[in-house]
Amino acid sequence: MKKKLYFGSNLKMYKNIQDTVKYLQDLVSLTKDISREEMELFIIPSYTTLESATKNVDRSYVKLGAQNMCWEDEGQFTGEISPLMLKELGLDLVMIGHSERRHVFGETDAEENRKVKAGLKHGFTTLLCIGETAEEKNFGISPEVLRTQLKVGFHDVPVSEVPHIWVAYEPVWSIGVNGTPASPDYAEEMHKVIKECLLEIFGDAGADIPVLYGGSVNPGNANELIVQPSIDGLFTGRAAWQADKFDKLIRDAMKTYKEKYGE
Ligand SMILES: O=C[C@H](O)COP(=O)(O)O
């Protein structure tokens, strides 16, 4: 089972312009020799760094994205960023529905759906993040929660958009300094649920959507996660924020994957 592997990071509300550009340039130069046929690298920095990042980083090696986006092109939406504004920067992707957007800022599945449709309409690769809370996990309803987030998130999205869709599974309880990483077995089980649901939504084409795991990915668990059959990549926060450490995590994971599945 040989497939392209995805590695990316969300920089959240960290790093100023200078630090972001340096991080991206270092990451590109460190990872340049890794074939982009085998590995997709993407980074999602803060809004204020994006213009400098797009101008100063070799985009053939790293895709750049935004952490959120409004569903409207323009209007009376103080504090929001329009898809047209992001297009002006020439970004590759938008992330929709990150756990912190849903749980700190109260975004709903229906809002994520509007954003997903806007992202796709404007030609961005659209990364929808989903994941259950600890309480939902304890009630034993994780599959139902994930299926709801996918079914609402992709409501009315035509199958022709599949090539532009990515999904990240990030259980809320696994994210950040207080998070507990999902075990590889549990992550695999949930990825299977997600992949089955994508087939239901998009038919056979749904199988082409990459599904990434995120939530306390670190050098100690990345290798075991990446070899799970239904995990297509790792969406990493803290463990990716130093270019040399992220480069090592990627290389080790790819080596482990190749040892298991062949060159
Ligand atoms: O977007 C990334 C996730 O929130 C994961 O963050 P983390 O790896 O620091 O837990």
Automatic annotation (TrEMBL):
<comment type="subunit">
    <text>Homodimer.</text>
</comment>
<keyword id="KW-0963">Cytoplasm</keyword>
<dbReference type="InterPro" id="IPR013785">
    <property type="entry name" value="Aldolase_TIM"/>
</dbReference>
<dbReference type="InterPro" id="IPR000652">
    <property type="entry name" value="Triosephosphate_isomerase"/>
</dbReference>
<keyword id="KW-0324">Glycolysis</keyword>
<dbReference type="GO" id="GO:0019563">
    <property type="term" value="P:glycerol catabolic process"/>
</dbReference>
<dbReference type="InterPro" id="IPR035990">
    <property type="entry name" value="TIM_sf"/>
</dbReference>
<comment type="pathway">
    <text>Carbohydrate degradation; glycolysis; D-glyceraldehyde 3-phosphate from glycerone phosphate: step 1/1.</text>
</comment>
<comment type="similarity">
    <text>Belongs to the triosephosphate isomerase family.</text>
</comment>
<dbReference type="GO" id="GO:0005829">
    <property type="term" value="C:cytosol"/>
</dbReference>
<dbReference type="GO" id="GO:0004807">
    <property type="term" value="F:triose-phosphate isomerase activity"/>
</dbReference>
<protein>
    <recommendedName>
        <fullName>Triosephosphate isomerase</fullName>
        <ecNumber>5.3.1.1</ecNumber>
    </recommendedName>
</protein>
<keyword id="KW-0312">Gluconeogenesis</keyword>
<dbReference type="GO" id="GO:0006096">
    <property type="term" value="P:glycolytic process"/>
</dbReference>
<dbReference type="Pfam" id="PF00121">
    <property type="entry name" value="TIM"/>
</dbReference>
<keyword id="KW-0413">Isomerase</keyword>
<dbReference type="InterPro" id="IPR020861">
    <property type="entry name" value="Triosephosphate_isomerase_AS"/>
</dbReference>
<comment type="pathway">
    <text>Carbohydrate biosynthesis; gluconeogenesis.</text>
</comment>
<dbReference type="GO" id="GO:0006094">
    <property type="term" value="P:gluconeogenesis"/>
</dbReference>
<dbReference type="GO" id="GO:0046166">
    <property type="term" value="P:glyceraldehyde-3-phosphate biosynthetic process"/>
</dbReference>
